[in-house]
Amino acid sequence: MRAFWFISLLFFVSATAAMSDEELTPEQLKQYNREKLSIDAQSITFGTFSLKSGTMSSGEIRRWTAYKGFDKISEVDFYRTVGLDEEAERARVFHDGRDCLMWWSIGLAGGGTLFALVPLLVLYPDLVSMYPNQQARDIAEGTTLIGGLTALAGCGLVFFYLLTPDNWSPASVVQEIADSYNKMLRDTLGSQE
């Protein structure tokens, strides 16, 4: 009995989809396919297991990419396309902050590494000749320690950046918005006969 209902539902859905495509002319269907919004949701699962403590944890990162027709668009452009300017601005601020975090983390990690290595590789021989006692080693070690801690802070920010979500809003929300937009687009194109 369940198979009957499933097959009936499948037939109804495919018949409804075919009927909606028949409502548009071939030119309108081409235009619809060029302007419709679609969402490609992706999921990345990760986990850790510790034999020492016997614990296990896992997580999932969900991200999505929007397309207008066949072209990839940003989250900000997605919201602007559907007329949600306030949400577009909030998404822009989110992405600007995320980009800033990325550049700061790379800058701190790279700058700290250079600051740590230059005294050891370049200045240390000159410092030893200038200060034959313990001072040269203390200066080089202090500079290396400061640079190493700065690089470590940058690496921590890189890790934090990788844990932040890629999108301001979840895929389920934008999928509903895209479906509503596509229905409105189909109705608009269908009424242009």
Q: Figure out the total of helices.
A: 6
Helix content: 55-70%
Poorly predicted runs of 5 or more residues: 1-19
Estimate the global geometry from the Cα principal axes: elongated
Major β-sheet strand ordering: 1-2-3
Gap between N and C termini, in Å? 43 Å
Report the sheet-strand fraction: 15-25%
- How many strands in all? 3
- Taking all Cα atoms into account, the compactness measure Rg is 28 Å
Number of separate domains: 1
The overall pLDDT, averaged over residues, is 79
Look at the helices and sheets and give the structural class.
Answer: alpha+beta
Note the run of SSEs as H and E.
HHEEEHHHH
Biggest beta sheet summary = 3 strands, antiparallel
Explain what this protein looks like in three dimensions.
- The chain is an alpha+beta fold and 193 residues long.
- The chain has one domain (34-171).
- Helix content is 69%, strand content 16%.
- It is built from six helices and three strands, in the order ααβββαααα.
- It has helices at residues 2-22, 26-35, 75-81, 85-130, 135-163, 171-190, and strands at residues 37-50, 55-68, 71-73.
- It has a three-stranded antiparallel β-sheet.
- A hairpin with a 2-residue loop joins strand 2 and strand 3 (71-73).
- Helix 2 (26-35) packs antiparallel against helix 6 (171-190), helix 3 (75-81) runs antiparallel to helix 4 and helix 4 packs antiparallel against helix 5 (135-163).
- The longest helix is centred in the middle third of the chain and has 46 residues, at 85-130.
- The two termini are 43 Å apart.
- Residues 1-19 have low confidence and may be disordered.
